[in-house]
């Protein structure tokens, strides 16, 4: 069954869409996108006003904003007032509370590099005079049996305060790794001190924290075998959990070309400027920690998602460390600050063997036995500044209930300079159902496993719709709101994909509204094809566009046909079921619009005869059915297809012969001109055709003298296939008249596989 969200959309269309000919709108609220679309959860948020925004990655954050109370000796119910962001509310055990009960312990939720802690006490009450500030990395006590004692906590740093009379204290730190903060009185207090607010300053938002839940992933691609567990522990914010590899595993030794390779997908593209690798083995008994090594050397690579020529990700170096034996055991934490780059993928690449020997052996006096772990990473942290450079959102398959004619896509988005909102669409008539099975705890299981569970242990079965056969590819991008729908329509099913882009990290984009404009189909189906499909490039050709519409009771019919192409069109004739029909011909910027004398709601074939000159391969002639409804014009795209079964081929694209010609039909007239201002033959008129060039390439048209010296540049800008007309007035690049004589016209264009050049002589006289 479709999700409740999709059912709601279907209900809106089926039961609230009026049965009129006007266009209607299907609104998709940002809250709908937030709940039902697929996107990197860590990159977007829904603001209080209901707009969808990219998150802001910050520097110098207060990590206490997301902290929780781990415990308090007294007044536990109000302990969170000590860090609620409001100095007017505070935490205060009652007067007479003994020092052993005057304590508070705060869990930051993850380990942070702290730069500062600030304590504020109420001004109208005495401050805490004697106390200890303790900090823990989250490390637990490990007993003599080498077992972690849950619930315990070891403190790595503390500072004692005595005879304190200040109501505000600032403790500066040097990126101290902290997860838990504890404040405890050490002597009896005067009165009842009130801890108004605890604040801290941390390095910044860790983009990689809780990576999987935020829409990212991590993969280990290496000729090594992991010790145990999942590499996801590198992103859990807990220094006591770690990832390492077994240096003695099969394939991990035997040559210097053996590497560890951690690949991280952040889920979205962020502006990053710092990566930290924390390798403190806190979850390992102290007596065994010297058997766990970090790196001899490593390289950090990044990619924004661009592909290399072989189809793999294109990587660039972000940072690296040189070979140093101290990196294995003496240095546990590594930090790299870099110039900001847009990165979605990060790669930690390091050798696991050196010269045929396993790394670690004999490189440290501490390490006299085999290593139990190599490439140790407790936390893989990533920092940046600003909004994500790119976040992609994809809708589920939207079931419209029946075939509807989607005409436009509209949205309301705030896009300051340096930001952009883009959309793509695809559509189809076939879907497949994909079932997902869950146990009672919400964990997804296989269908086979689900069937083996007893009924009380079974959870829900969720059914998702996935595109089936015959779906269109993703459309060209919608850049502006109100753009015509670019996917085939009418269709029952559609899917949307959006991009939120920020070339400026500080540009804050916001999506407020999204809507599909739709109407009842003008024709149930409409197929079109053009003939001839193979033509000579640059030749003026007579074409016929065959249109085959099918109508049902729900079809509105159409009163006009629009034919659009990238080349000028000349109308010849329109026939309906073999009968020539007089039409009003309107030239548009995109092509022709033919207004019929009466609306058409029954016909087998429409033939549109026209002429055009084609320069590019795969030039398309797109047709649209139109119907005027009040001040609106409803439009339906014609699908390329077999509209004329008796003819070979089916489609609306033109093919050019396979050859290497890029330049054709060069015409310089007689090649002689007299620029003497008598009004006769004062300029040399030059025309030529550029063929088959789709991506803009430099079209160089220059005049040279017989000594090969450049005289005049007539054109040197990148352009595509088409007809070109240039003129030379006899002046050089400095606007001086050139002397009479012979010159050379040099025309050149660089194609994908070769450069094509044409040269002609020119005579100039007075």
Protein architecture, described:
- 4% of the residues lie in helices and 48% in strands.
- The protein is mainly beta and 766 residues long.
- It has five domains: 4-56 and 390-430 and 468-519, Sandwich (Jelly Rolls); 61-203, Sandwich (Jelly Rolls), CATH 2.60.120; 217-384, Galactose-binding domain-like (Jelly Rolls, Sandwich), CATH 2.60.120.260; 525-654, Immunoglobulin-like, CATH 2.60.40; 663-764, Immunoglobulin-like, CATH 2.60.40.4070.
- Strands 1, 24, 25, 26, 30, 31 and 32 form a seven-stranded antiparallel sheet that branches.
- A hairpin with a 2-residue loop joins strand 42 and strand 43 (632-637).
- The model is unreliable at 1-19, 249-256 and 362-368 (pLDDT under 50).
Strand and helix map with partners:
Layout lengths: L3 H13 L7 E4 L2 H7 L7 E3 L5 E3 L4 E3 L6 E5 L30 E19 L9 E6 L4 E2 L5 E2 L7 E5 L6 E18 L9 E10 L12 E4 L4 E2 L16 E4 L12 E20 L19 E6 L12 E6 L4 H4 L3 E19 L1 E2 L2 E2 L15 E4 L1 E6 L5 E5 L3 E17 L4 E10 L2 E9 L4 E2 L1 H6 L5 E10 L15 E2 L6 E12 L7 E10 L5 E7 L8 E11 L7 E7 L5 E7 L2 E2 L3 E4 L3 E10 L5 E8 L5 E2 L1 E8 L2 E6 L1 E2 L12 E2 L8 E5 L4 E2 L10 E7 L6 E9 L4 E10 L2 E7 L12 E10 L4 E10 L2
Parallel strand pairs: 33-44, 47-53
Antiparallel strand pairs: 1-32, 2-3, 4-12, 5-6, 6-11, 6-12, 7-10, 7-11, 8-9, 13-16, 14-15, 15-22, 16-19, 16-23, 17-18, 17-19, 20-21, 24-31, 25-30, 25-31, 25-32, 26-31, 27-28, 27-29, 33-34, 34-40, 35-39, 35-42, 36-37, 36-40, 38-39, 41-45, 42-43, 46-48, 48-51, 49-50, 49-52, 52-53
